[in-house]
């Protein structure tokens, strides 16, 4: 799938260039209002771009302003956070609806439906009605229905957002298995592989999510949108390990300090410096970000940081203290690079230091734990 288009409205515009190879899974991340839903709408044919082209498997779906294939003829399947099953149909007929809508005879469509229900571990639900299913079971069926239509492109719009904490991991694992299986069969068996054309070639998939775990476990690549533009993209683990925008750093659970690259690291607007290890593509004088985990931040009561001379030492105050799994997450407030920085401490350390919101502290970070990258903002 290749999409290079512009969608413009008075209050918002989306300009992007996106490639998803057959069998590839791209996760799209971004804050609210960044353009994720608009992207899916354009790919699905529900919205018409003002400029550009969208093509799938060598077939032009949209070429503004004259060519626009309607949604039902695009070979695109979609799964949202709501299963949206037909309440009056049995589960097998819900899934069979997809191939039937493409002209497949009813008996054959039901065979396809039962195959996909088995594929998503829902074979025992065929005779039930949607009201008899749990949220996780309904989402399995919705995935089977989306795949039964043999789409060349599968769009996943926050598919796990409405599931409880028990159901989400199972559906996440299911998505990974189902999305990988066709691509792996194609790679091993080539054109002789059994199944639909989409399965033989490996269907492309675009996953919109707010959860970095979805991106890490399901996607090959990540695209980060902000203000209708792609600001970061690359292999999933690389992007989340070395974020270049505040949004990506926040979902990856990392601290990010923006400034200007210098010989030692980053200089922030106040003039304070944060020393770190610069990536090869960092250019002195250009915008850059320093990235480091909360676990790398040492916290001291003001005036007690010791007799050493750490390169990265900044005064601050405790802004907040919140439970964060097995640790306490401290968020600092202060001048220079300390503003908004988070640190993870044990409950015992918080008690020993007698920390509370408003406490005067000092933050220290070893330069060896700080990675400096060009800014994506």
From TrEMBL:
<dbReference type="InterPro" id="IPR005116">
    <property type="entry name" value="Transp-assoc_OB_typ1"/>
</dbReference>
<dbReference type="InterPro" id="IPR008995">
    <property type="entry name" value="Mo/tungstate-bd_C_term_dom"/>
</dbReference>
<dbReference type="InterPro" id="IPR050093">
    <property type="entry name" value="ABC_SmlMolc_Importer"/>
</dbReference>
<dbReference type="GO" id="GO:0015689">
    <property type="term" value="P:molybdate ion transport"/>
</dbReference>
<dbReference type="InterPro" id="IPR017871">
    <property type="entry name" value="ABC_transporter-like_CS"/>
</dbReference>
<dbReference type="Pfam" id="PF03459">
    <property type="entry name" value="TOBE"/>
</dbReference>
<dbReference type="InterPro" id="IPR004606">
    <property type="entry name" value="Mop_domain"/>
</dbReference>
<keyword id="KW-0500">Molybdenum</keyword>
<dbReference type="GO" id="GO:0016887">
    <property type="term" value="F:ATP hydrolysis activity"/>
</dbReference>
<feature type="domain" description="ABC transporter">
    <location>
        <begin position="1"/>
        <end position="252"/>
    </location>
</feature>
<protein>
    <submittedName>
        <fullName>Molybdenum ABC transporter ATP-binding protein</fullName>
    </submittedName>
</protein>
<feature type="domain" description="Mop">
    <location>
        <begin position="307"/>
        <end position="374"/>
    </location>
</feature>
<dbReference type="Pfam" id="PF00005">
    <property type="entry name" value="ABC_tran"/>
</dbReference>
<dbReference type="GO" id="GO:0005524">
    <property type="term" value="F:ATP binding"/>
</dbReference>
<keyword id="KW-0067">ATP-binding</keyword>
<keyword id="KW-0547">Nucleotide-binding</keyword>
<dbReference type="InterPro" id="IPR003593">
    <property type="entry name" value="AAA+_ATPase"/>
</dbReference>
<keyword id="KW-0813">Transport</keyword>
<dbReference type="InterPro" id="IPR027417">
    <property type="entry name" value="P-loop_NTPase"/>
</dbReference>
<dbReference type="InterPro" id="IPR003439">
    <property type="entry name" value="ABC_transporter-like_ATP-bd"/>
</dbReference>
């Amino acid at each position: 799938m290749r999409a290079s288009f512009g969608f413009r409205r008075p209050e918002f515009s989306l300009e992007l260039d996106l490639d998803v190879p057959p069998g590839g899974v791209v996760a799209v991340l971004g804050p609210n209002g960044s353009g994720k839903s608009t992207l899916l709408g354009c790919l699905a044919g529900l919205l018409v771009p003002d400029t550009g082209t969208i093509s799938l498997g060598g077939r032009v779906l949209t070429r503004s302003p004259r060519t626009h294939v309607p949604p039902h003829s695009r070979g695109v399947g979609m799964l949202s956070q709501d299963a949206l099953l037909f309440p009056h149909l049995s589960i097998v007929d819900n899934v069979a609806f997809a191939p039937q809508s493409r002209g497949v005879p009813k008996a054959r469509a039901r065979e396809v439906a039962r195959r996909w229900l088995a594929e998503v571990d829902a074979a025992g639900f065929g005779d039930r009605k949607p009201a008899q299913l749990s949220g996780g079971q309904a989402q399995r069926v919705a995935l089977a229905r989306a795949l039964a239509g043999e789409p060349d492109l599968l769009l996943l719009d926050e598919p796990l957002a409405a599931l409880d904490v028990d159901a989400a991991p199972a559906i996440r694992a299911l998505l990974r298995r189902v999305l990988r299986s066709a691509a792996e069969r194609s790679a091993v068996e080539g054109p002789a592989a059994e199944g639909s054309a989409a399965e033989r070639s490996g269907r492309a998939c675009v996953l919109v999510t707010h959860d970095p775990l979805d991106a890490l476990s399901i996607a090959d690549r990540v695209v980060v949108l902000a203000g209708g533009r792609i600001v970061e993209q690359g292999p999933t683990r690389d992007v989340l390990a070395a974020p270049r925008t505040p949004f990506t750093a926040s979902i990856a659970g990392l601290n990010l300090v923006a400034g200007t690259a210098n010989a030692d690291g980053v200089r922030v607007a106040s003039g304070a410096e944060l020393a770190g290890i610069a990536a090869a593509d960092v250019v002195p004088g250009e915008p850059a970000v320093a990235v480091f985990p909360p676990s790398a931040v040492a916290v001291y009561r003001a005036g007690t940081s010791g007799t050493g001379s750490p390169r990265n030492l900044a005064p601050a105050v405790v802004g907040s203290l919140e439970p964060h799994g097995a640790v306490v997450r401290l968020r600092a407030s202060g001048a220079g690079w300390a503003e908004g920085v988070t640190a993870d401490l044990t409950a015992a350390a918080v008690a020993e230091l007698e920390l509370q919101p408003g406490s005067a502290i000092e933050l220290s970070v070893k330069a060896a734990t700080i990675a400096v990258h060009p800014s994506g903002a």
